[in-house]
Amino acid sequence: MPQSNVKQWDATTPVSLDGPSDYELKLTDDLGKTLIEYDLFETANESSKRSQVLKKLDEVAKEFVYKVSRLQGMPEEEAKGAGVKIFTFGSYQLGVHGADADIDTLCVFPQHVTRDHFFTIMYDMLNHIPEVSELTAVAEAYVPVIKMHFEGIPIDFVCARLCLPSIPKDLDLSDNQLLIGMDEKCIRSVNGARVTNEILRLVPSVPTFREALRAIKLWAKQRSIYSNIMGFLGGVAWAMLVAKVCQMYPKTCASVIVARFFHIMADWKWPQPVFLKPMEEGSVPTRQWNPDVYPADRAHRMPIITPVFPSMCATHNVTDSTKKIMMNEFLRASQIVDDIMSGVRPWRDLFQPIDFFCMYNHYLQITASSKSHKTQLQWAGLIESKIRQLVLQLELLEPLELAHSFMHGIEKVHYCLSNEEQWYIAHGHSIDSRSFPMDNTLTRKDYVRKMKLTIEQERSMTPLYTTTFYVGLKFKSVKDSPTNNRKLDLVWPKREFLKMAKVWDKFNPDTMGIALRHIKSSTLPSELKGALKQEYIKSAASPIAVVETPKSERL
């Protein structure tokens, strides 16, 4: 596609070239000590284990390409020289991953190997490795991925086919010519690694950037706004925002970057886009972000644009609700960091977790259930990917000010003694003595020991796996509701959401379930409420009538 209409944006102009004061350096030292208290750094042994796992994955990739090459009739020596290369990206490549973080990994292979080979032959090879668990493939995703745990380390494994007869050992992904002949899914996959490398190249000081980014990531997770799939910002978007502030203050230290970050983001004139460098024009005929040409790009609420060709918006999932929530959090944090920089408050105050289940009077509870753990991994992932669409539908309802999705699904395993119990649990309930938080280190025997069952009950019980998602509902005040409509009609959003789930080609109504229901804060599961803080409960200005189908729908 011709790029003549693509705007060229100015590079970041530094706001200040001042270096840090002794006091600001002390605050940076305090920040570092605080981050250590949150166990954000892996040990040397954990780091070594990750390196070893990546080496093993590299060996699997080499065997994979050799196997495909031989299946296509390639001579043995030529097959051995076909080549493959593994790249890491995301938080691991940025150097800001924690001990329990996943490793984003890219497998680049030559032109005679296809994505179909990756999701069949590679998947089968991984499935036969004893050290690999929780293996699932999402070939139809926006960025196709194989998810797994390799020796307990979570890995997101993506692939890209290059139009090269073989892959050289010194392959440089920064060369735009490599994109020639790639389909869009391969471009999206390979750009994950290209973006990460370019961010590191564009920041003035990598150590300062890393420390500031660790702090911002911790803050975003504690405030439950770290989730691209839920309509907030994902890892690459947070990294680009921090990199932008580092460019604006290139000589200063991490404490100043963190403090300035919140003020800059709270005052940012969205939808003015965030760029780390001018957009590039490329010789590859592919679409890149351009709000002057594409209406969908004009609709982006908080555009943060990737710094490699083809430039894309990393925040297209942001909704009106999630934008409002994030802007409120930026403002709150800007006030806290002012006190921290003045010596009035400690860094820990910035990282206080949000009490999501004490924030609203009304919630939607979405429960995905399956009869096998492996099926549940895929089914719950599919449902999670649709929550944002539900939020968009809820935003259209007159009485609602915003819909706030919780960042995580809550996983449980339940041991049922009847079909009635299965139905009860699949519709969002639990049985105290036989419902447990999901723990992959425990076996069926371990759970049996926790329950007081007769021999007959033990033989007849069947597991049901659930993942439950929550959406908090905030209502407009009477003065902000032009029609004074105090009735929330959930029938249409529920029907549309359940329909979206039902069309999944792997859906099986005999083994899988999905239920959505409205609940009040007073009926939330007790383990979610914690110490109820009444000052956080947002009471409606007048009573709200919620209309939904008489019973929770189940497919």
Automatic annotation (TrEMBL):
Pfam families per record: PAP_central, PAP_NTPase, PAP_RNA-bind
EC number: 2.7.7.19
Subcellular location: Nucleus
Signal peptide residues on this chain, from the entry's feature table: none
Domain Poly(A) polymerase nucleotidyltransferase: 12-203
Binding sites annotated in the UniProt record for Mg(2+) 1: 102, 104
Keyword flag Ribosomal protein: no
Catalytic activity field: RNA(n) + ATP = RNA(n)-3'-adenine ribonucleotide + diphosphate
Residue ranges annotated for the Poly(A) polymerase central domain, each copy included: 208-352
Keyword Nucleotide-binding: yes
Annotated Mg(2+) 2 binding sites: 102, 104, 156
Cofactor binding note of this UniProt entry: Binds 2 magnesium ions. Also active with manganese.
Binding site for ATP: 89-91, 102-104, 156, 217, 226, 235-236
GO cellular component terms, semicolon-separated: nucleus
Molecular function GO labels: ATP binding; metal ion binding; poly(A) RNA polymerase activity; RNA binding
Segments crossing the lipid bilayer: 225-243
Domain Poly(A) polymerase RNA-binding: 355-531
Needed co-factor(s): Mg(2+); Mn(2+)
One GO BP annotation of this record: RNA 3'-end processing
Keywords in alphabetical order: ATP-binding, Magnesium, Membrane, Metal-binding, mRNA processing, Nucleotide-binding, Nucleus, Transferase, Transmembrane, Transmembrane helix
Record function comment: Polymerase that creates the 3'-poly(A) tail of mRNA's.
Family label: Belongs to the poly(A) polymerase family.
PANTHER family noted in UniProt: POLY A POLYMERASE, POLYNUCLEOTIDE ADENYLYLTRANSFERASE
Protein known as: Poly(A) polymerase
Organism per entry: Rhizopus microsporus var. microsporus
